[in-house]
């Protein structure tokens, strides 16, 4: 299991449905407003880092998703 998979697993266990729901709602709102997927993920990621959450699993997962999308993979794979 890779490091990102471990962090994501911790995120799934440590954080409740509310945190995941909040992330998907933020992403959905940005996408509905015409923000491209990669830009939306980068925006959420950057805000979490500025808020001091750089080491939280969801922030790490967002960073990994951004890297994977930049390398040409789909979000479903990332």
Q: Can you give a write-up of this model?
A:
Helix content is 72%, strand content 0%. The chain contains four helices and no strands. Helix 1 packs across helix 4, helix 2 (17-32) crosses helix 3 (37-50) and helix 3 (37-50) runs antiparallel to helix 4.
Jot down its keywords.
single chain, 78 residues, mainly alpha, 4 helices, globular
Give the helices and strands as they follow along the chain.
HHHH
Low-confidence stretches: none
Main sheet makeup: none
Chain-averaged pLDDT:
83
Overall shape: it is globular
SSE-based structural type:
mainly alpha
Strand tally? 0
* Gyration radius, rounded: 12 Å
Tell me the strand percentage band.
Answer: under 5%
The percentage helix is: over 70%
What's the tally of helices?
Answer: 4
Query: How far is it from the N-terminal to the C-terminal residue, by CA?
Result: 14 Å
């Amino acid at each position: 299991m890779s490091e990102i998979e471990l962090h994501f697993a911790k995120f799934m266990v440590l954080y409740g449905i509310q945190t995941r729901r909040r992330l998907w709602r933020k992403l959905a709102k940005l996408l509905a407003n015409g923000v491209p997927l990669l830009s939306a993920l980068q925006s959420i990621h950057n805000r979490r880092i500025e808020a001091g959450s750089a080491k939280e699993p969801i922030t790490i997962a967002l960073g990994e998703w951004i890297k994977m999308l930049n390398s040409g993979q789909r979000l479903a794979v990332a």
